[in-house]
Structure formats: structure tokens, C-alpha cells
Design goal:
CATH topology of the largest domain: Rossmann fold
Mean pLDDT: 95
Number of helices: 14
Distance between the termini: 9 Å
CATH class of the largest domain: Alpha Beta
Strand order of the largest sheet: 3-2-1-4-5-6-7
Length: 376
């Protein structure tokens, strides 16, 4: 079976997902090819080099995130030529831009059954796109869904969101839950928080991910202002502009409690130094960082976004906020901080057991193979 994966959004969790999926499917004997852009993340070209050395066909097509008609048409033509050359059995696209260009290329050439993993739909991003753009994105996704053999949701809650949106008929949706290798975050020496000039006697949390509206770092800062959260220190880890967030830190008097680290390649060591993970996202599909934090033995406090609702058992492995807002997140955070340290450790242990038992790599690969088998 020859499978072509197409992705533009090669950053963060989607980057991790693509590499894990391609490597896992290659290990099952499939003929794997990747058409991807290297413009999003400076570390991704190294991933492609590694996959190429492992026998994966790598095709660098420099798609861009923004709508750019002339450039998008050129990338579409390049994808059409690639699909004609490879004649894949499956064209598996990921996220919005590659989802449009890759599925259209498969339709135009007549090669490949079409599988799409949206990793959340762009038309749900209220904080990022105007209403008319979201209407346009929704109409486009609805049209493309008619010619898509299967849609992959990376969590049960994302599957429900897909169907409730009215874009995708339920009989075409399959859930293939994201998975991780727990050993990546277990047994790692913890980072010394002294390098960030933080007090080791005070509880410390982190928000880890790209700095933008969708990840909700602003909600995390608001949560720190709520009753019961006054002692918490926060690391904000990840690439992106810090200016607006840093201004809020100064305005709200949080300068002694918040540190920006920028992008880091030692996330497992950071997790080992924390008391809990904070996920203040406005939207997700199945957040890798939550699975990793749970596998590392940390309790997680999160907004009730897709994926987080499937991962976290409120009161047993962490806490879910009542809504996507700073005050609600602060109340959930205060519940966990009010526990004695031994009780928080108990939440982390329960989360570790749950993540290790339920969210491994092998079930993810088997699930994808089952989906491919359905449509061939």
C-alpha cells in the first residue's frame, strides 16, 4: 500500500503527529511518502532528513499558511504532478491548507482514496479569523467533505464537534486517538528552575506551546490573578511574540511570578521540574502536551476543549475549568492548588497510569491501518 501524507502546518503537535504516524506506518511495511512545507518550524527539516534516511519518500513543497492565490495554485499544480507520479492508494491530508490542495490534487488526477485529519477546523477559530472568513472556511470544508472518503478525528470530543458542525456526515468520521511514547518524558532529570530565578518553595506550572490566541496564554495570566492562585509561578514556554503577554504581566503585577523561556528543546526536563501543567487553550484536537504531562506524572488543569475532555478526569487526574475564560480557569486551578502536595502527587500518578494505558503509539497506527483498509 502506497500512502502520501500532505501537510503545511508542520509545527507543534501536528508536526509530532506527522512524524510519529509516518514512522509507525513505515514500520508496518507501507510505502510512505510525505509532501510537506518546511517554512513553519526551523526544526522540521531535520525531521524530514531523518525520515528520508529511514526510507520514506520526502517531497518538499513549500506551501504557506496564508491564502495566496498565485502561490497556492502553483503548489496545487506541484501536488498534482506528484500524485500522478506516485499514483498512491491513499492521499492523507492534514490541517487546512494541505487539506484543500491535497484533496483537490487527488480529485483532479483520479489517484488515491482521500483521508483527511483536520486537527481542528479553522472555521472554529473565533479569536483568529473574522466571521466572513470563518463562513468561507466552513463552506469550503463542507464541499471538500463530500469528496473525502474518511475524516479522522484525533479524539472522541473532536469527532462530536465535527458532526455537530454539520460539515461532515457521521458515517465518514472515524476516531483515531493521538498517541505518545511515554518513555520520552519518563526518567528524565528535571530542569533546575533556579535558572529562571523562580522560588523552588512555591508551586510552579507551565503553559507550553506556540504563543498565539489559540493556546490561550492570556487566559493563563488572567487565571493567576484569581483567588487561591496567588502563590503560583508560571513558565510560558514556546515560540512567538511575547509583547502583548509581557505587557499584561506588567499591568497585572505578575512580574515576580511569570517567566518567558522562548522555544525550548528540553520540554521533558521542564515537565520534570513542575508541580502541574496548565492548558488554557481556546481550541485543540488532542493536545500532545497534556498526554506527555500526564505520562510524566503531572496533574493537568485545562479549559474544556476537545481532547482535554477525553484525557482529563476531573478530580482524579487534574481539573477541568467550567468554561474557556480566565476566571473559570483560575477556579479550577485554585481547586488543585488547595490540595496538599501528597494529594496533587496522587492526581499525577493516576494521570500517568491513564496516559500509559490508553494513549500509546501502537493503537494509533493500528487505527489508521483499519481506516485505510475500510476504503481500499
Amino acid at each position: 500500500m502506497r500512502v502520501l501524507h500532505v501537510m503545511e502546518a508542520t509545527i507543534g503537535g501536528t508536526r509530532r503527529h506527522l512524524v510519529d504516524v509516518v514512522r509507525g506506518l513505515k514500520g508496518r511495511g507501507l510505502d510512505l511518502h510525505v509532501a510537506a512545507s518546511t517554512l513553519r518550524d526551523p526544526g522540521f527539516p531535520g525531521d524530514l532528513d531523518a525520515l528520508e534516511n529511514e526510507g520514506v519518500g520526502v517531497h518538499r513543497i513549500q506551501m504557506v499558511r496564508a491564502i495566496s492565490p498565485a502561490r497556492d495554485y502553483g503548489d496545487y499544480r506541484r501536488l498534482c504532478a506528484l500524485v500522478r507520479e506516485l499514483q498512491p492508494d491513499i492521499v492523507h491530508t492534514h490541517s487546512s491548507k494541505a487539506g484543500v490542495l491535497g484533496r483537490r490534487a487527488s480529485l483532479a488526477t483520479g489517484f488515491g482514496k482521500r483521508v483527511h485529519t483536520p486537527h481542528t477546523f479553522a472555521f472554529l477559530f473565533e479569536a483568529q479569523f473574522s466571521a466572513w472568513k470563518r463562513r468561507m472556511f466552513r463552506a469550503l470544508e463542507a464541499r471538500l467533505a463530500q469528496d473525502t472518503d474518511r475524516m479522522i478525528a484525533v479524539s472522541p470530543s473532536e469527532a462530536a464537534t465535527m458532526v455537530e458542525s454539520g460539515v461532515v456526515p457521521s458515517d465518514r468520521v472515524r476516531v483515531v486517538t493521538n498517541g505518545i511514547d511515554p518513555s520520552r518524558v519518563q526518567g528524565v532529570a528535571p530542569l533546575d528552575l533556579a535558572q529562571f530565578d523562580l522560588d523552588p518553595a512555591r508551586p510552579t506550572a507551565a503553559v507550553i506551546g506556540l504563543l498565539y490566541e489559540g493556546k490561550g496564554q492570556d487566559l493563563a495570566l488572567d487565571a493567576l490573578r484569581q483567588p487561591g492562585c496567588e502563590a503560583l509561578q508560571l513558565l510560558i514556554v514556546g515560540p512567538g511574540s511575547q509583547d502583548a503577554l509581557a505587557a499584561s504581566v506588567r499591568e497585572w503585577g505578575l512580574t515576580d511570578r511569570v517567566r518567558f523561556t522562548g522555544p525550548r528543546d528540553d520540554v521533558p526536563a521542564i515537565l520534570g521540574a513542575l508541580d502541574l501543567l496548565l492548558l488554557p487553550s481556546r481550541w485543540e484536537g488532542m493536545p500532545y502536551i497534556v498526554m506527555e504531562a500526564m505520562a510524566a506524572g503531572l496533574p493537568v488543569v485545562a479549559t474544556p476543549v476537545d481532547g482535554a475532555r477525553d484525557l482529563i478526569v476531573d478530580g482524579e487526574t487534574g481539573a477541568l475549568a467550567e468554561g474557556i475564560a480566565g476566571q473559570a480557569l483560575g477556579r479550577a486551578l485554585a481547586r488543585v492548588l488547595a490540595m496538599d502536595p501528597a494529594a496533587r502527587v496522587g492526581l499525577g500518578r493516576a494521570g500517568c497510569e491513564r496516559a500509559t494505558r490508553m494513549f500509546g503509539l501502537e493503537p494509533m497506527i493500528t487505527g489508521l491501518l483499519d481506516v485505510y483498509g475500510e476504503i481500499l
